[in-house]
């Protein structure tokens, strides 16, 4: 069975974005990009909420075309173009979207069907609203978190409206020279 892993940058106090969705506090550099790129390159499916998908779709398909594209832009753009994209959205229409499946209703059933199909893990990128919904439906199998050295004090939390305790098993940690710490967890009861 395929697993859904939530990939998220978070602040030390557990926020994934500022109060207005701002993410200018996230610390990234080549070391972090290379580390993340190695794992992502082995993944064939990305899962997004509508807002994050539209942000990604507005940048990654053509990011490598820029004359000053970074190594990360070249690599991630190539991966993005070949990855299958799943999008949870009640408003986005399927029309003419390349390698993209819109999940607009019965999303728990549809996600469970997709988890039964052949393929690698499914990385859920950002998408706090979709993440909250998937957590409530017990559909997330792990968390790949990058804790940034900042306390925001307010914003959009990673964990919201949790009704039942979720026990996690720590799989790996890594500290990066920029102060970010990776925490890789599996949900214990899956």
From TrEMBL:
Query: Matching Pfam families, A to Z?
Result: RibD_C
Q: Which GO terms describe its biological process?
A: riboflavin biosynthetic process
Q: InterPro entries attached here?
A: DHFR-like_dom_sf, RibDG_C, Riboflavin_Biosynth_HTPR
Q: What GO MF annotations does this protein's record show?
A: 5-amino-6-(5-phosphoribosylamino)uracil reductase activity
Q: Which domain of life is it from?
A: Bacteria
- Which residue range or ranges hold the Bacterial bifunctional deaminase-reductase C-terminal domain? 2-181
| UniProt xrefs under PANTHER family | 2,5-DIAMINO-6-RIBOSYLAMINO-4(3H)-PYRIMIDINONE 5'-PHOSPHATE REDUCTASE (PTHR38011:SF11), DIHYDROFOLATE REDUCTASE FAMILY PROTEIN (AFU_ORTHOLOGUE AFUA_8G06820) (PTHR38011)
Give the protein name, as stated in the record.
Dihydrofolate reductase
Q: Which organism is it from?
A: Pedobacter soli
Q: What is the lineage of its organism?
A: Bacteria, Pseudomonadati, Bacteroidota, Sphingobacteriia, Sphingobacteriales
């Amino acid at each position: 069975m395929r697993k859904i892993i939530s990939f998220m940058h978070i602040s030390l106090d557990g926020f994934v974005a500022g109060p207005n969705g701002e993410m200018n506090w996230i610390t990234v550099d080549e070391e972090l990009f290379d580390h993340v790129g190695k794992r992502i390159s082995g993944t064939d499916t990305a899962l997004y909420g509508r807002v994050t998908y539209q942000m990604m779709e507005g940048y990654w398909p053509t990011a490598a075309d820029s004359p000053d594209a970074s190594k990360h832009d070249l690599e991630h753009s190539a991966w993005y173009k070949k990855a299958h994209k799943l999008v949870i959205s009640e408003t986005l229409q399927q029309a003419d979207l390349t390698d993209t499946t819109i999940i607009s209703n019965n999303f728990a059933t549809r996600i469970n069907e997709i988890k039964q199909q052949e393929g690698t893990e499914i990385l859920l990128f950002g998408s706090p609203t979709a993440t909250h919904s998937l957590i409530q439906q017990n559909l997330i199998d792990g968390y790949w978190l990058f804790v940034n050295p900042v306390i925001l004090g307010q914003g959009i939390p990673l964990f919201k409206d949790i009704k039942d305790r979720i026990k996690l098993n720590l799989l790996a940690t890594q500290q990066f020279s920029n102060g970010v710490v990776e925490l890789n967890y599996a949900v214990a009861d899956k």
